[in-house]
Amino acid sequence: MAFIKARPWTSITILLGMLIIGINAYFVFKDDSVVARSYFIDEFQKAHIGTHTERVNKDAIVAPAEMYTVSADATSLSAVNVKRGQEVMMNDLLATYKEDEINDELTKLESELAAYETELRDLEDALDLIEDDYNDADPKSSIDTDQIDDNLSVTLKFELAQQNSPSTAIALLNRHIAETNRQITVIEAQIVEIQARQGLISPIDGVVSAIKEEAGTLTIEIYSSEKAMYAYLSEKEWQKVQEGQTVDLKVKHVKDSLSGIVIEKQAIPTNADTAWAQELAKTATLPQPTNYEVLLQQDDLLEDIPFSTTGKASIIVNEAFDSYRVDKSWVTTTKNGKKKLYTIDSDGKIHLMTINVEFNTANSAIFTDFLEEGTPMISNEPRNIAAYTFRTMPVEKIQWSHFKDLTWQQYVKYIVF
Questions:
Q1: Where would you tag: which of 124, 242, 354, 396 has the fewest CB atoms within 10 A of its CB?
Q2: Is 399 helix (H, G, I), strand (E, B) or coil?
Q3: Assign residue 322 a region: left if phi > 0, alpha if psi is -120 to 50, beta otherwise?
Q4: CA angle at residue 333 from 332 to 339, to 5 degrees?
């Protein structure tokens, strides 16, 4: 008190200075402050360029790449030459015909061959029709199934009607043509072998998986020696997975990881009769209430691995090269739909940049824009653009111990300036 009376002007100057500092601190630090100021950054991510992916990870099971069924009238056979689990080679004799029944069996196979050849012609005619439309100067955006041969199956005509463009219909027809050609090849081989060896022969190298006799017909099912893998998708996953996508595989008893591709995905839900789904369900939980089967083909052969061996499949459904990853909650969306991200430039100033988000994963946004390696990216809390950060180009999170290193003069300078 004596000091104030002795030096009134000095006291007034000190009080005014403290008042100015207090008012300045209030306007700088209040939540809606528009005053340019420095910001303390306690959390950030560094930008690192690389290849980033979104994956669908699934349990998978080893299965034959293809399954073949050959059948014959049981009364026409004199002997069955194989048993379940037996390995067979292409053209091995599976069953021997009675001599007096050979001609009847040949007639049956020749009728089947003629039917497949007719189907092949119908498919090729439909393909020519759609290709002509696709190559037209003004191609249609949908398939007119009324123009397609009536001899095509109802199922195939329905599938064609569901296609969005001629190009996808062409791919569907080519697949059916390939399957029909395969059946023709199998029957032709059977005819040749019956004529030469008087018996039912194996169309492939493989393993006999089942021998059944029902309603007077003997059926032999053969798994191909070449193996593939099946996985089962939820409806949401089905929308993301496409044929031709890359997949990384890990199989029990195989030391190294394998790469491969998605060969085929089913549009029809898996039912209770799907053998490989039933087998996988013994050790893994399949998507509920509905799931869809997808066939995966690894690049390398699976040797000495039995069918039904389980593993893991990681399907790459999105991939961005020369891209960056950031917490997707840090990306803000403007009213016009643009994506924005706060970064800190080389001078330590805050910058709000527009980014091109390629896709989102569960926790991250993947974007492709040029950033200097190591650029700090910060959360989307509103900040004044071009304001300085508390520490220029921070390299680590600030700890409480760091505050002890600062003098009171530095704190005063920060608040005032």
A1: 396
A2: coil
A3: left
A4: 85
Nearest to 322 by CA among 355, 370, 377, 357: 370
DSSP string, 8-27: HHHHHHHHHHHHHHHHHHHH
Q: Is 202 exposed, middle or buried (0-12, 13-18, 19+ CB in 10 A)?
A: buried
User: What is the DSSP secondary structure assignment for residue 60, as one 8-state letter?
Assistant: E
Query: Could you give the 3-state DSSP secondary structure of residue 335?
Result: coil
**Would you say the pTM of this structure is higher than 0.90?**
no
- Do residues 95 and 218 touch, judged by C-beta distance below 8 A? yes
Structure tokens at 386: 């071009």
φ, ψ for residue 28 (rounded to 5)? -75, -40
Residue 207 predicted with pLDDT over 80: yes
pLDDT in tens, 17-54: 677 666 665 555 555 554 455 666 667 888 899 999 99
Share of the chain above pLDDT 70, in %: 77
- How far apart, in whole angstroms, are the C-alpha atoms of residue 235 and residue 230? 16
Please enumerate in sequence order all residues whose Cβ is within 8 A of that of 408, keeping only pairs 6 or more positions apart, or say none: none
Q: How far apart are CA 158 and CA 334, in angstroms?
A: 44
What residues form DSSP beta bridges with 199? 96
Rounded CA-CA distance 177/94 in Å is 28
Local structure of 353: helix, strand or coil:
strand
Quote the distance between the C-alpha of residue 265 and its chain's center: 11
Select from 105, 108, 110 the least CA-distant residue to 94.
Answer: 105
Beta-bridge partner residues of 254: none
Is residue 29 exposed (0-12), middle (13-18) or buried (19+ Cβ within 10 Å)? exposed
- Is the bond into 289 cis (omega within 30 degrees of 0)? yes
As separate numbers, helices (DSSP H) first and strands (DSSP E) second, the chain gives: 9, 20
Task: Provide the pairing of β-strand 206-214 with 217-224.
Answer: antiparallel
What is the 3-state secondary structure of 248-305? EEEECCCCCCEEEEEEEECCCCCCCCCHHHHHHCCCCCCCCCCCEEEEEEECCCCCCC
Q: How far is CA 139 from the centre of its chain?
A: 31
Helices (H), 144-269: 154-161, 166-197, 235-240
